[in-house]
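Researcher: I'm preparing a figure for a lab meeting and need a structural model of a single chain. I don't have an experimental structure, so a prediction will have to do for now. The sequence is pasted below. Please return the structure as tokens so I can convert it later.
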Amino acid sequence: MLIAASAFLFLLLLLLAFMPLTLEVRCRYRGLRGEWELALSTWIGLRIPLRPFPRGPAVSGRGRKKKKSFLSFLVRLLGRKGYRAGLAFLLKHVDIRRLEWYTALGSGDPALTGVLVGGLWSVKGFVLALLARFLAGFSCLPQIKVMPCFAGAGLDLWVCGVFTTRAGYILLAALKAAFSR
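Model: Understood. Here is the structure written out token by token.
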């Protein structure tokens, strides 16, 4: 009985290790208002919406309140060598299933808008090159568009991405981060 239970548990853990996990990211900024959504889903149809990283007040050395941000947490975490090794391992096993990145940009001055749109194209090309280098690769061609708005000033950004990895790679990355020095 004990052998059957442990064999069942081993097979269940093996199945969970090979289970693909998909992270869906949607972000829209219009002017200064931004909305974003994260959701984690599995192949069995389970979809879990994720909340943004909580921001809470922290007290600085002089007694005044200072806000903690996700970026400062990430910088502190990546400053540790073991976490960098685990994250690098995990990123090599993340596949981009879909990436759509649309931007509308205008400055009010048509000449300046043209220069800004050209600069934005180069920034987008650089970001795509970084994604291709540090992640496993693209399963499909990314949909990228920059639309100049010569008539008015403003910024409209829409990003939708679907990233996939296996749960076993997440566990291996956590083990690598925990035991590397």
